[in-house]
């Protein structure tokens, strides 16, 4: 399927080729456009540019849909109730969501490699079964080529390095399976790194074995993902890695003081100085202190409600109550708040260091109004246009920044293997 260029876009492209018109920034045009026209322009850009998302939790959603032991494999070739599927991706212009091979910390004690391997198989099966819709992708060049064929790429990132277990050879094993970034840890300290959600500080940063793992990741061209780690582990990773590092799904701590899962201003600056990229997490609780407070409040109200009524989280009466409570109390963040985080990175470091890392299907019940699923990327692009971002800026945010880092990681691996 080819991406269709609208007449308006063709005219805009021709205009941008003319030297006389080149000075005209899209911002000027935006000022004269109606809301509908800006939205249409954003939709054109969403489909003209590759959109990479640093973190989409489809694999785990396929593994366990709902709660308890009920398993139901999702058919994402058709419309689903989840955040990600083919029709929604097509509508929103999403081309390369990093599929999160999420390994819960409960596997840190054992079975992590096997579990990760099974999620990888399931995710690659999606591309195998629906090979006219999806394709695996192991590099920016493969994403580009899939895009030109009208296929949605499913690159793989592993969330939690626990599956490396205690064997360095597992880095190559997972590289061969298609893993192209590893989030060093998840919600607990593991054998590689301390976690921002843990308070044990097992290693005061990255472990000695973690240092070897990062070196091995550099050697094969696996990106180091510092989302979820402590500040000390972030600085250790920055020091140890010979290639730039990424945050696959983190936001700016500036808006959520004390929430260490997000990056401080200084960390954003240091990540950028090292050539990396932060992919902004869309979850409401990552975006503002107000949202965090409201979610805390909602959590205690709903816990009390369940205790009083005896309902479980899955009871439809409870779900209806929870949905009504969320709507009545306006708990969700919105698109402008997500854009504030992008602005913040741009102010601190520049437009070359930011991308999207939605956490779709990972934070489903906390997504902002206007960014509830992968069909809605045009809404954030429209907001960026309104704030004066140029097409070139938006192209960088959509994929070029991620591609730059990934290509540098690949080039460094070649260099290290050659030496
Ligand atoms: Zn995560």
What would CATH call the homologous superfamily of the largest domain?
Metal-dependent hydrolases
By DSSP, the count of extended strands is 10
Order of helices and strands: HHHEHHEHEHEEHEHEHEHEHHHEHH
Low-pLDDT segments, ≥5 res: 1-28, 66-71
Output the structural class. Answer: alpha/beta
Could you say which overall geometry the principal axes of the C-alpha atoms support? globular
Query: Order of strands across the widest beta sheet?
Result: 1-2-5-6-7
Mean pLDDT: 91
Ligand catalogue: zinc ion
- Radius of gyration over all CA atoms, rounded: 21 Å
How does CATH name the architecture of the largest domain?
Answer: Alpha-Beta Barrel
CATH topology of the largest domain: TIM Barrel
Percent of residues in beta strands = 5-15%
Fraction in helix: 40-55%
Discrete helix count: 16
What's the CATH first level of the largest domain? Alpha Beta
The major β-sheet equals: 5 strands, parallel
The overall number of domains is: 2
Features:
2 domains; binds zinc ion; 16 helices; TIM Barrel; three-stranded parallel beta sheet; alpha/beta; single chain; five-stranded parallel beta sheet; 9% strand; disordered N terminus; 419 residues
């Amino acid at each position: 399927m080819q991406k269709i260029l609208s007449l308006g876009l063709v005219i805009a492209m021709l205009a941008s080729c003319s030297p006389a018109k080149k000075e005209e920034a899209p911002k000027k045009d935006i000022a004269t456009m109606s809301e509908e026209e800006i939205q249409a322009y954003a939709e054109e850009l969403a489909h003209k540019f590759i959109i990479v998302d640093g973190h989409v939790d489809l694999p785990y959603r396929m593994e366990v849909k709902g709660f308890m032991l009920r398993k139901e494999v999702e058919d994402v070739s058709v419309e689903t109730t989840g955040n990600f599927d083919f029709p929604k991706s097509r509508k929103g212009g999403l081309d390369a969501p990093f599929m999160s091979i999420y390994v819960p910390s409960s596997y840190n004690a054992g079975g992590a490699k096997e579990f990760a391997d099974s999620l990888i198989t399931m995710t690659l099966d999606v591309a195998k079964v629906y090979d006219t819709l999806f394709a695996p992708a192991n590099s920016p060049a493969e994403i580009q080529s899939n895009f030109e064929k009208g296929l949605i790429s499913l690159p793989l990132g592993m969330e939690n390095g626990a599956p490396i277990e205690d064997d360095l050879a597992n880095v190559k094993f997972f590289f061969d399976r298609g893993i192209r970034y590893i989030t060093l840890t998840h919600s607990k300290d593991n054998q590689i790194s301390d976690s921002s959600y843990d308070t044990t500080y097992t290693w005061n940063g990255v472990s000695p074995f973690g240092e070897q793992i990062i070196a091995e990741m550099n050697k094969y061209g696996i990106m180091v993902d510092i989302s979820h780690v402590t500040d000390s582990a972030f600085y250790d990773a920055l020091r140890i890695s010979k290639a730039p590092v990424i945050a696959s799904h983190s936001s700016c701590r500036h808006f959520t003081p004390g929430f260490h899962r997000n990056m401080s201003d200084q960390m954003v600056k240091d990540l950028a100085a090292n050539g990396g990229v932060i992919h902004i997490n869309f979850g409401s609780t990552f975006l503002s202190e107000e949202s965090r407070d409201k979610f805390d409040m909602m959590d205690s109200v709903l816990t009390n409600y369940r205790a009083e009524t005896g309902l479980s989280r899955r009871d439809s009466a409870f779900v209806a109550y929870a949905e009504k409570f969320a709507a009545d109390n306006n708990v969700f963040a919105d698109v402008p708040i997500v854009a504030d985080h992008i602005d913040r990175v741009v102010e601190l470091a520049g437009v070359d260091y930011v991308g999207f890392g939605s956490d779709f299907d990972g934070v489903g019940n906390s997504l902002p109004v206007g960014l509830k699923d992968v069909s809605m990327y045009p809404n954030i692009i429209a907001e960026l246009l309104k704030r004066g971002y140029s097409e070139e800026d938006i192209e960088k945010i959509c994929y070029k920044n991620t591609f730059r880092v990934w290509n540098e990681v690949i080039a460094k691996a070649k260099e290290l293997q050659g030496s």
